[in-house]
Amino acid sequence: MAPVPASHPQVAVTLVLLLSMLGLAAGGKVLVVPVDGSHWLSMREVLDSLKEKGHEVVVVAPEVSLYIKPSKSFVMKTYPIPFTQEELDRDFHEFTQDTLKEGSFLERFVRIYQRFEKNSALLLSTCEHLLYNKELMRYLEESKFDAVFTDPVIPCGPIVAEHLSVPSVYFLRGIPCGLDFEATQCPNPPSYVPRIFTEHTDHMSFLQRVKNLVFDVPNLFLCNFFFQPFSKLASEFLQRDMTVLDLLRKASVWLLRLDFVLDYPRPPVMPNMVLIGGISCTQEKPLSKEFEAIVNASGEHGIVVFSLGSMVSDIPMKKAREIADALGSVPQTVLWRYTGKVPSNLPQNVKLVKWLPQNDLLAHPKTRAFITHGGSHGVYEGICNAVPMVLMPLFGDQMDNAKRVESRGAGLTLNILEMTSEDMSNALKTVINDKKYKENIKRLSELHLDRPIHPLDLAVHWVEFVMRHKGAPHLRPAAHDLNWIQYHSLDVIAFLLAVVLLSLFISFKCCMFCCRRCCFKKGRTRKPAKSKSH
Amino acid sequence: MAPVPASHPQVAVTLVLLLSMLGLAAGGKVLVVPVDGSHWLSMREVLDSLKEKGHEVVVVAPEVSLYIKPSKSFVMKTYPIPFTQEELDRDFHEFTQDTLKEGSFLERFVRIYQRFEKNSALLLSTCEHLLYNKELMRYLEESKFDAVFTDPVIPCGPIVAEHLSVPSVYFLRGIPCGLDFEATQCPNPPSYVPRIFTEHTDHMSFLQRVKNLVFDVPNLFLCNFFFQPFSKLASEFLQRDMTVLDLLRKASVWLLRLDFVLDYPRPPVMPNMVLIGGISCTQEKPLSKEFEAIVNASGEHGIVVFSLGSMVSDIPMKKAREIADALGSVPQTVLWRYTGKVPSNLPQNVKLVKWLPQNDLLAHPKTRAFITHGGSHGVYEGICNAVPMVLMPLFGDQMDNAKRVESRGAGLTLNILEMTSEDMSNALKTVINDKKYKENIKRLSELHLDRPIHPLDLAVHWVEFVMRHKGAPHLRPAAHDLNWIQYHSLDVIAFLLAVVLLSLFISFKCCMFCCRRCCFKKGRTRKPAKSKSH
């Protein structure tokens, strides 16, 4: 008998995990292909944790970007793109101004559509400049990464992962047209899973369910419209037919920034989906002296934190004056993140700041309310710190996020374009003074925070898992190997129907045959009798 | 403005969790309605942990049972049932003997069916004696429990939870007829989720998919056959119409003893499902001197652990002699859990023991193979400790478990009724000497153990969660409030179809009307012309 080496796997694996937790294990090598904007901000925290655990983190990013800047936590490899920082900043500024510009529905639709088209072209071109940068790609090929960590909303990372044949971990909130459901084989019944942009809850009336189903139709075109150019790019670059859906199906693990406290208990989570909603709400750091002084000076009334997110820090003057009026009507000190021209009617209780430590301020016991655009990071920070919200959604999933907070009685939603100064003042006073809002957000917060492991640790665990095991094929549902007909067992049902019908047909024919033989016999035996009688 | 009390929820909740982890927090009160047999064994470990965390645990069990015995970890409340311990033991012994008796398929089927019918009646009667025990029920009503922790395979616990209006946590491997899927609104496509008793993997051929679908049909009757008496009992006792399905839908959290390493990545996990497969594989304890001596004396060849589980410890003599012969053909020392008459041909290398510390022995580096009946606890302990297996399934989910291990190249399955001594010898030698088996089970083990939190801690967390928050309504999918037609959007589709058809009909009618008017006009303008010409 061949001797089997003595081993003790349970202890061994525990040891590896322990070592890796202490950051002593030989680190892995992870390539990060990020998406700029707020998407980058929470991803960065995972990179810091990965670095702390002893892994080598390499980030590839265009030379010109909004937020992706070098850090001690990672090696940054940049590639040139045909835009300057000024052009990007201007483009971005125009985007937020467009969003806040008033007008008829059609005007706004055309404006947003044109902007969307322009941005898509920019994102595609950026991806092309990464893939066809020979020097950088050679470096990536030679680097022997253990995993690619990427946000697939812009499917450039998945193309790189496929080219390098490295397993990938996705980090996202969702893909607006629902391609994430298709790519994970995750059922998504329109009867109780609200579609994006519908602002529905999970409990819908008949007409809402009709709207929900109808909203699925444009998704079919939207997915194609946005991802088709990337499919073309992938096929050209990889030199084989490859759609974005094909690429996304290959992900090892999907880290989804969802939590059922905010996002309705949607149906199912597939084996390779991990929910990490609330990842950006980490232990708060002490406030700087400047902010500490403002908060302490606020007295018994406390403060209100006001930020329209990382994307919008400047709004048209008319709107700014209205908002300033509203903010003047509450006794709280308002900390407003705002970089535009100071409105002339700015009340004494409002402090304008270029940047604010949002999570740390929300965590302060003196914070009474949070005025937010409803981005998922901000909303989760509001929930985590149990601060009632006034939501002024602007674009993307923000309308839906706002509706979700409102439907749970933890905040009020305003239409920033249509609201008056009085509307805002009333909303702010209500969420601060009506105890119901504080109670509801406190309950949500308790549910959200009562979890066996922090989402950040969970995210890091799964990136390390994929690095350690070269993917996670044991989490891949066999549904990926079935076509639509097979998945729904239509071929099996057709076969069984055919068998039943054939059996019936044969039984019928047999009966007929027997009857005929009987009749014929009778006929034959009767006939001679008849002929005899004649 | 009403002053809002200063609070710091993130720290507060963290503190509660921390205190609860240290067992210092004010404990909750949990009522346990267990199911006897192997189901009880892994549940008991959760109770030990709950007790350690400072909770009060009350177990209700019949006076006569196989394994449910008093312990320091819980208060035990018993109720009389009309069976003696001798009757129960005899009944149980007969059950295992029936299972191991040879015979034609029909004979075996009739035998098992009769046994099943008898056992069902016994379980129902036991439940009736709990529910109608006035003194015990009054005690339960007065005890003000925070949660009911129960195995719903015998739906007595869910009836008690409903009667007491206390949220419940379920602890189970699954319900054979698939009622767990229905009760959780969990999709369960027969195209890639293998049905119990089919022995399929998740990758099925066309004919296997046909068989898988066909196997769903008897499930409809089986569920009804087994659970109908409990539905009747529930309706009578609760004095309102109530089916077992209605009861199961109310569970707050389902703790499922599944892990995708063994159980194929089946489709979806609903928000209130938590996977805790491998819960019984905890840190091994040092072996007693007796076992340590046997293991050390085994030399370089090491040992083989052999147990047919908690339910079977005695087998017919003819089979025992065949097995003894097979065990004598390997150089390993075999530790066999066996309480029957000693076979006369027992080889020197086989040590018979009445009980063995299975997990601790499997964890020993000298263990080369594990001969098991394929019960889920044993299989997970084999995986956890990376020991290749020879599986001899007897009943229940054991055939499927065995097939799952075999399909992953980590063990070999034998039919205990049909196998010869040589078959068993060959299988045992193969899993020990063919390195492939050890490599495969080692890989499975590494994947299984690489998890962010131990399943036991996860189970305890969710029981505590339900106690702390009085249930988990935020995890309840809205699908529960839809009927079958609504869930599948059939009413919406019918409505949209009607709208489309009506629009087409109206358009058609309008066209016809216009055409007719045109024709009529033409006709009228032509007619007078005609009459004029006449």
Which helices and strands occur, and which strands form pairs?
The structure is a homodimer of 534-residue chains.
Chain A: H1 9-21, E1 29-33, H2 38-52, E2 56-62, E3 75-79, H3 85-100, H4 105-131, H5 134-142, E4 147-150, H6 156-164, E5 168-172, H7 179-184, H8 206-214, H9 216-238, H10 244-248, E6 253-256, E7 273-275, H11 289-297, E8 303-307, H12 317-327, E9 333-337, E10 350-353, H13 358-362, E11 367-372, H14 376-384, E12 389-391, H15 398-407, E13 411-413, H16 421-433, H17 435-449, H18 455-469, H19 484-487, H20 490-533
Parallel strand pairs in A: 1-2, 1-4, 2-3, 4-5, 5-6, 6-7, 8-9, 8-11, 9-10, 11-12, 12-13
Protein traits:
homodimer, Rossmann fold, 2 domains, six-stranded parallel β-sheet
Please provide a written account of the structure.
- The structure is a homodimer of 534-residue chains.
- By secondary structure, the first copy, chain A, is of the alpha/beta class.
- Helices cover 50% and strands 11% of the residues of chain A.
- The first copy, chain A, has 2 domains: 23-281 and 454-475, Glycogen Phosphorylase B (Rossmann fold, 3-Layer(aba) Sandwich), CATH 3.40.50; 289-449, Rossmann fold.
- Chain A has helices at 9-21, 38-52, 85-100, 105-131, 134-142, 156-164, 179-184, 206-214, 216-238, 244-248, 289-297, 317-327, 358-362, 376-384, 398-407, 421-433, 435-449, 455-469, 484-487, 490-533, and strands spanning 29-33, 56-62, 75-79, 147-150, 168-172, 253-256, 273-275, 303-307, 333-337, 350-353, 367-372, 389-391, 411-413.
- Chains A and B meet through helix 1, helix 8, helix 16, helix 17 and helix 18 of A and helix 1, helix 8, helix 16, helix 17 and helix 18 of B.
